[in-house]
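Obj: model holo form, ligand = DAU.
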Amino acid sequence: MRVLLTGGSGFIGSHTVRMALKEPGISRVVNLDKLTYSGNLENLCDIEDERYRFIHGSINDSELLAETLGNEEIDSIIHLAAESHVDRSIDSVEPFVKTNIDGTRVILECVKDFFNSGKDISLIHVSTDEVYGSLGPDDLAFTEETPISPRNPYAATKAASDMLVQAFSNTFGLKVAITRCSNNYGPNQFPEKLIPLMALNAMEGKGLPIYGDGQQIRDWVHVNDHARGLILTLFGLNNGKIKPGEVINFGADNEKTNLEIVHEIIDLTDAKLEQIEYVRDRPGHDRRYSMGFEKAKRVIGWEPEVSWNMGISNTISWYRENEEWVNSIRTGEYLNWINRQYGG
Ligand code: NAD
Ligand code: DAU
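Output (holo structure tokens):
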């Protein structure tokens, strides 16, 4: 396979690039990334593999996309590029609509043009459990049949892109699949998200800002498990185990409250309980996510493999040992965001 990854310089994208390069069945890995605030060349700077190529550009650029698909003879796409942070979507919706919805439309139109001229390109559209909305404490986990019900602007733009993907599959016959995963954690995650933000603040003796009562629940998946799931989904779509238009969910049976997570981070970093600060809740904050992954198990043989205890302690160690990486993301943009969001 000759694979184009969009957003390969981000958190999940960079781990997926690494995993793709370990696959003997993949002969080319092209990473198209705009390098927004969360895209970082440092994430892949050690890759020395002639099968890998980085292209600096946007998924919204249809000419660049068509040229890349053609010149690189791409037959498969894993589409990860997005605006990914819920709090930023509450701050400003426009970039989310532009990248997540319109950027996905541009990719679909391009794949459709190739399809119409006789070249079938498989597309894995990487979505999220947030499109399903929020669960109560006793509700059953989301399944692929759960109706979508997004409740924040980020989730709404991901749901809209999912619907476009399904519409293009149904109307134009494109070979696409949608994956929906719950919260990821691991190395290289931009420290605006809960775990890296808390890890760095804990180690640096700063405040640990918990939104609301901290009893919100997320189902945490290690990023390497997600990346492996994406590659397996691509193989599944290409070998017919997954039918065009199907959805695959990834979860880990690893539900934790935010407060539990922060307590674990405090233990692992020898921080102090007094660093915890209860701050204003996120508007429209989803209470609980839980993802069933029976279908992933049955159809593509995927199960999470990284245990939480191992995964979280390795993640905290990674942030402790990678000061250079941490400094590389502490740009003016990041510091402005932290100031605006948390008041310094
Ligand atoms: P991230 O913010 O770390 O990375 C996003 C990447 O996309 C960055 O490298 C950025 O430069 C790039 N990008 C943004 N706009 C672009 C554009 N117009 N053209 C090309 N590249 C562009 O995000 P992440 O956490 O790695 O998430 C990746 C994908 O996985 C997203 O689609 C997200 O919705 C989905 N997802 C994330 C999680 C999670 O827990 N982080 C869970 C489920 C699904
Ligand atoms: O569920 C999958 C989604 O997980 C992905 O689709 C998104 O791209 C990804 O950003 C993530 O969204 P969340 O909003 O769940 O992740 P975040 O790390 O921002 O927050 C996790 C929880 O922690 C959430 O309940 C909000 C809370 N939180 C977050 C931050 C940054 C705090 O209490 N304090 C904080 O400072």
